[in-house]
Amino acid sequence: MKRRDAGLTLVLGTLAAAVPRIPFAQPAGRVVRLGYLSHPTRESVAPGVDAFVRRLRELGWIEGQNLVIEYRWAEGKTERLPALANDLVRRKVDLIVARAGVAAQAAKAATASIPIVMIFPFDPIGLGLVSDLRRPGGNVIGTTFAPGPEIVGKQLQILKETLPSLSRVAVLRNPADAGSVQYGEALAAAARRLGIQLRYVEARGPDEFDAAFETIARERAEAMITSGSSTYLVHRARLAELAAARKLPTMSSYREMVEGGMLMAYAVNMAGFVGRAAEYVDRILRGAKPADMPIEHPTRFELVINLKTARAIGIVIPPPVLQRADEVIG
Fold first, then answer.
1. Does the reported pTM lie above 0.90?
2. In 3-state terms, the chain is what percent helix, strand and coil (to 5)?
């Protein structure tokens, strides 16, 4: 059951107010070539991609007519991104859409002139993508997940409300993804406030998952948070299977992880949020400069709970937590 959608805001007002629509400056009959560079697989982010293409169509950019999209999928493998980004540059795309912070970093390393619309890096300033959220400068613009440590701390708080005796939490993070590392570090202040000890466990991909869960068991963690690496999104079913085998409650940064079998997520509705990137694309293609546009970030998040998983691992979700859920699965 779904109760409400995630909200959106801009760092400075609305995007429409900050950058008014201007007439087409494109030569008649020109076909725009757009590069879409994604760290996760297409399957794992399909609703977001569909929302992005649908919004482009609403704005007048239609594949097969005035738009060609060159998709590049890293399949969750961070090391593939530089070559994929360079390939898009060689093909002389007019603009690159970069899904995930590591994708945006690869795109920025590949070009300083082609506009880049990033989707959802955790901290674009810390990642070196932009210098300021109000006027980012350079060729990178887009959306970010930079709401502050109080939001990621909310994940710990919800876990604590669900498991009142909780004192030790494992944080699964990907050392190859700087945003994932930043995300894990942002939990520290909330952990101290709640009296929870964090145990950081690293896994770059599925080859390291078994060893990571052995470490989690050895550390006697009572729950696990998966930091926001899209590598984990790609392999969500495997992570859910490993957590369920150990009766380990989990909290995630993506609602799709809960749909894949994890216990709960406090996260942005990415399918709705990704569509916003299309509006940046539209304005840039119509002549707006990325350096002069503010970066958008979410202000509302949704709590999603998988009751089937809760029953399987023997967890009873307290009624107050269930009542706050925006969606309950199973």
1. no
2. 40, 20, 40
- Alpha-carbon distance of 165 to 167, in angstroms, equals 6
Q: What's the whole-number mean pLDDT along residues 44-56? A: 91
Contact present, 141 and 115 (Cβ < 8 Å): yes
Residues with Cβ within 8 Å of residue 268, at least 6 apart in sequence: 6, 120, 145, 298, 301, 302
Bridge partners (DSSP) listed for residue 302: 267
Look at residue 112 and tell me whether its pLDDT is greater than 80.
Answer: yes
What 3-state DSSP class applies to 274? helix
Query: In this structure, what token pair is assigned to residue 111?
Result: 């070009």
**pLDDT band for position 230 (cuts 50, 70, 90):** confident
- What is the DSSP code string of 77-136? -GGGHHHHHHHHHHTT-SEEEEESHHHHHHHHHH-SSS-EEEE--S-TTTTTS-S-SSS-
Residue type, 190: A
Q: In the chain, which residue ranges form alpha helices assigned H by DSSP? A: 15-18, 46-58, 81-90, 101-110, 149-162, 178-186, 188-194, 209-218, 230-234, 236-245, 255-259, 270-274, 277-285, 307-313, 319-324
Question: Residue 11's pLDDT is what?
Answer: 42
Tell me the C-alpha distance between 123 and 127, whole Å. Answer: 6
105 in Cβ contact with 178 (< 8 Å) = yes
| Cβ-contact 262, 307 below 8 angstroms | no
Model confidence band, residue 79 (pLDDT cutoffs 50, 70, 90): very high
- The one-character DSSP state at 53 is H
